[in-house]
Specification:
five-stranded mixed β-sheet; 50% helix; alpha/beta; 4 helices; 2 domains
């Protein structure tokens, strides 16, 4: 004769094993959800801080200047940067946003466009022989040669 445990005893061990499996599954699901929420929360700053394209920023800064430039004139260019790469980058950006206006990196022309990252220090970088014809704010100046 085989021993059979009473009905209640066998079900209890089965139900406690099922409970352990369910608890492990719940912990696993909560762990995955927690990790996913942390990753999602980490990307929220991308939604809150809008991307501003540097070319769009230059277009906004130089829009007032674009409206007053005389046609068919070559302009000189001056900036407060000392890095040759940064000077070339700024000159190309200004040429692009003011197109079809021609801009030469030399400041020997009668009219010179100034692009200054530090508007307060702009006057220190203008140089001799130039004076401010119009200050458009945000480091954008139209300069002219003293006569």
């Amino acid at each position: 004769m085989l021993y059979r445990p009473p009905e209640g005893i066998g079900n209890r061990s089965n139900s406690s094993g099922t409970r352990v499996r369910i608890a492990i599954l719940v912990l696993l699901v909560l762990s995955v959800m927690g990790t996913t929420l942390r990753l999602f929360a980490g990307t929220l700053h991308l939604v809150r801080e809008p991307f501003v394209d540097p070319i769009v920023r230059y277009e906004q800064r130089f829009k007032p200047l674009q409206n007053v430039l005389p046609p068919r004139v070559i302009f000189g260019f001056v900036t407060d940067s000392t890095s040759p790469n940064e000077i070339e980058k700024r000159q190309r950006l200004v040429s692009y946003v003011l197109s079809p206006v021609l801009i030469d990196w030399q400041s020997d022309w009668p009219l010179v466009i100034g692009d200054f990252a530090d508007p307060a220090a702009a006057r220190d970088h203008i140089g001799a022989g130039l004076r401010v014809r119009h200050d458009f704010g945000d480091g954008v100046l139209l300069l002219e040669r003293d006569k």
